[in-house]
């Protein structure tokens, strides 16, 4: 059995090395850091409703004059996401900086500052909804509905909400045969809107790559998106910045790659990654959830069930 010691009655720290510290209240963890980078979905809201206790944490950080940034794998560019968050009850006054996978995708396609994007042709086969097409607004690319005419594929989502990944296999297989490069505008494999699961562009990209296709990912856990935030936080020492997320595969892995302390907040995505039932929050302790992370997954520095001050 693993033994724990109590710290301030609300943090339980595993006495073994390289294991997360467990916290009940964000207040006691927050005092150790000056800068905070929050994931959004699964941390601040569930895709439908905000978590009031999490918003209270943002408000408390503002009062404490801490620096708060938001980072998201959404394909929405940040100006649109700011308005979406405002409508859901997360005003701009609660954070200073924001960056999205959509921003990263747009910036690379616009600037073509690296050899991979510079080598792309001008004709794009786009997979995504009508709203997702805003990602390409004002970019100098032609769109085609015939994949055989394309120079590259960009996946931003499903074009219809009820489609399954298998519905796209025929087009993706053609792309692989034609050796078309694929841009993944959101590395998430899936997301939860409330309790309902939806596929994300990362699932397309994984299929494409496993079949031999060439893929470029924009967003967490890749370093480029984190660097866009860290450029704004240069006055804060790296060991005084905390990353908060709910996904081991994107959030915690990304934080580990750039040597940031991280806080894993449990959500349906967490439990899906660990192959646990979605009600694991009610039936398992944090220590039991931590043990399920195992040796093959990236390790968070800290863990909480959910954000509360």
Automatic annotation (TrEMBL):
Gene3D superfamilies, alphabetized: HAD superfamily/HAD-like
Stored InterPro entries: HAD-like_sf, HAD-SF_hydro_IIA, HAD-SF_hydro_IIA_hyp3, HAD_sf
Source superkingdom: Bacteria
Signal peptide (from-to): none
GO molecular function: phosphatase activity
One Pfam family in the UniProt entry: Hydrolase_like
Coiled coil (UniProt feature): none
GO cellular component: a single term: cytoplasm
Protein name: UMP phosphatase
Organism: Caedimonas varicaedens
